[in-house]
């Protein structure tokens, strides 16, 4: 199976602007990408990064106190980077059109992704179907495409649109039930999930490590959990 | 296994106040409870409702166009209701103290719960351990307690607290990875999830049906999905 991880190299995580600087957003986006690539590599697949700009993966994997190479790989250089500066939907569809065989598309901000959750996704879906791990708000956080005519459209409620599209082309659709794959890190509230669940399954979470180095920690106020930043 | 579904009969879903009236909140809370009880019954377990006040389950299961009795049961009367007007934590701990054998505690607002997701939870965890399906923000949406000394504390980041408590008493903890069990319906934004995913697996969703009868539907604006209410 081809496993593609799209990455917006130039405009990372703008919805985190209120709590982290542009440079820090780049750091966090790269830490998340490294975590996702490591989790994919641990399932036995070599991912392909579909990046909007050239990207040196050695830099992506450089993070204090953590391995600079994902498990199962000799070097980050083993991971191919395909540059396509078109918007996400167009770039992914070009990949789907060119591909022979099943393709999995895994968003680069699924910082809680584990090998177990990804393996469940990769094994899901009928031989001519589509399997989707939805995110909150109808997002398509990760999917496996085995039907040759299926194309993505990430705008709006993409999960609902993808479900309708699959029905139109006669592709059986399976929904993959995963809290970890359902959690994409877009907004400050999502950082709570990284600090609670990141690196809790025996793997190391570069994203959680970076967040803690940036001074983020959990705070409970009035029975609700948020993140606070104690230093910068 | 004992499966307990705590239910706040008198103060349902106050965080939905901005979008639904008190009467409608009661209707929605009961629809969610009925969906959860049906899903539990479909796993082969007879749930117990742990209610803060007396409750007639016939009324809970009365919903236009939907079966008034959950599958696997002859009548809602088969489901026992235990009344305990203490706060959630105290009531659940009293149940745990009195129980012999494993106990599952499933929140009544897990409107997306399916038999498959609940079966995964019920099968999880070590023989002397605890299994938790976390919700967003560190909540404990559902858990299975097999260690006799484990007690709950639902205040604050209960998932983190429960993880620490399990470690303290030497109970192995397993986290159950489920988007469906991870989605509790507390706030208006959560209604999006019910309208997208409710009743999509061959079962009927009383909650989604009620929401649609109350005039709620999905709306996509600026690429984000929300609910709007078109009639009342």
From TrEMBL, chains A, B:
EC annotation from Swiss-Prot or TrEMBL: 2.7.7.68
SUPFAM superfamilies to which the protein is assigned, alphabetical: Nucleotide-diphospho-sugar transferases
Keywords: GTP-binding, Nucleotide-binding, Nucleotidyltransferase, Transferase
GO biological process, one term: F420-0 metabolic process
GO molecular function term, any single one: GTP binding
UniProt keyword Nucleotidyltransferase present: yes
InterPro entries in the record: CofC (IPR002835), Nucleotide-diphossugar_trans (IPR029044)
Pfam families: CofC (PF01983)
Catalytic reaction annotation: (2S)-2-phospholactate + GTP + H(+) = (2S)-lactyl-2-diphospho-5'-guanosine + diphosphate
Pathway where it operates: Cofactor biosynthesis; coenzyme F420 biosynthesis
Statement: the UniProt record of this protein carries the keyword Nucleotide-binding: yes
Function: Guanylyltransferase that catalyzes the activation of (2S)-2-phospholactate (2-PL) as (2S)-lactyl-2-diphospho-5'-guanosine, via the condensation of 2-PL with GTP. It is involved in the biosynthesis of coenzyme F420, a hydride carrier cofactor.
Quaternary structure and partners: Homodimer.
Family membership noted in the UniProt record: Belongs to the CofC family.
Protein name: 2-phospho-L-lactate guanylyltransferase
Higher taxonomy: Archaea, Methanobacteriati, Methanobacteriota, Stenosarchaea group, Halobacteria
């Amino acid at each position: 199976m081809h496993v593609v991880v799209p990455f917006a190299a130039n405009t990372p995580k703008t919805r985190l602007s209120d709590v982290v600087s542009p440079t820090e957003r780049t750091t966090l986006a790269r830490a998340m990408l490294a975590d996702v690539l490591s989790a994919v590599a641990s399932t036995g697949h070599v991912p392909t990064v579909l990046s909007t700009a050239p990207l040196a993966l050695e830099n992506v994997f450089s993070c204090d106190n953590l391995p600079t190479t994902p498990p199962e790989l000799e070097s980050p250089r083993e991971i191919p980077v395909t540059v396509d500066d078109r918007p996400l939907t167009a770039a992914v569809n070009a990949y789907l059109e060119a591909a022979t065989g099943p393709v999995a598309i895994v968003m680069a901000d699924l910082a809680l992704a584990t090998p177990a959750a990804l393996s469940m996704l990769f094994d899901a879906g009928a031989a001519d179907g589509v399997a989707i791990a939805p995110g909150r708000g109808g997002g398509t956080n990760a999917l496996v495409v085995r039907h040759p005519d299926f194309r993505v459209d990430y705008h709006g409620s993409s999960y609902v649109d993808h479900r309708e599209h699959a029905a139109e082309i006669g592709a059986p659709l399976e929904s993959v039930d995963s809290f970890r794959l359902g959690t994409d890190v877009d907004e400050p509230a999502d950082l709570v999930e990284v600090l609670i669940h990141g690196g809790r399954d025996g793997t190391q979470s570069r994203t959680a490590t970076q967040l803690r180095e940036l001074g983020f920690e959990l705070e409970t106020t009035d029975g609700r959990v948020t993140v606070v930043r104690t230093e910068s």
